[in-house]
Design goal:
Blueprint (H helix, E strand, L loop, with lengths): L4 E7 L7 H12 L4 E5 L20 H12 L2 E6 L8 H11 L12 E7 L6 H14 L9 E4 L14 H22 L1
Parallel strand pairs: 1-2, 1-3, 3-4, 4-5
């Protein structure tokens, strides 16, 4: 880990005006100076995981994604909720990064989960399903504070920043705890 902590944010929404992506952008603007958050590019273009393609020459998008995960000091998963779970695009990204078996790029990466929805529960179901995957992936996950962001469709001001002071304060606390978590995990 250099002077700054390199966090790769994996966003589970493909929509151009995604609330989840907007949330990560707003959260990144609140991050302490030591925390640099970059949204993973091309998650929606990753070919669906198929073990038949995971040969000596796997798809280039898989290779680049796995390499970017390995370079990161920590991972921030950001998910909306689809049918009380995470979206397929996020599950595919998890599968691509975890293979081939025994060579997971995710292993031992400190992580945190933030979930968002227009509803009041803040994508609780997706957040919890994602956390189940993290256990198998051997990714130590930040436990507190939890970040379930409800009412995300009414959260942003005209400049894209978080307009609710309580939510802004929660996100700042979340980011500070995440930075400390990464430092502890990476020794």
């Amino acid at each position: 880990m250099a002077n700054s902590i390199d966090v790769l944010a994996v966003v589970g929404s493909l929509r151009r005006e995604s609330y989840t992506r907007r949330l990560v952008q707003a959260v990144a603007a609140l991050a302490p100076p030591s925390l640099r958050i970059e949204i993973a590019s091309g998650v929606g273009e990753l070919p669906l995981y198929n073990q038949d393609l995971d040969t000596a020459a796997p798809p280039a998008a898989w290779v680049a994604f796995r390499e970017r995960i390995r370079r990161a000091d920590g991972i921030l998963f950001a998910t909306p909720e689809y049918n009380r779970s995470m979206p397929g695009v996020l599950k595919n990204a998890i599968d691509v990064g975890s293979r081939p078996y025994g060579k997971s790029a995710w292993a031992r990466k400190p992580t945190a989960v933030i979930s968002a929805s227009p509803g009041q529960m803040g994508a609780f179901g997706a957040n919890q399903h994602l956390r189940q995957c993290l256990v198998f992936l051997d990714m130590p996950a930040l436990q507190q504070p939890e970040a379930y962001i409800g009412g995300v469709d009414k959260l942003f001001d005209a400049s894209g920043q978080i307009s609710n002071p309580g939510t802004r304060q929660l996100c700042e606390k979340f980011l500070t705890a995440f930075a400390e978590w990464i430092k502890r995990q990476n020794g």
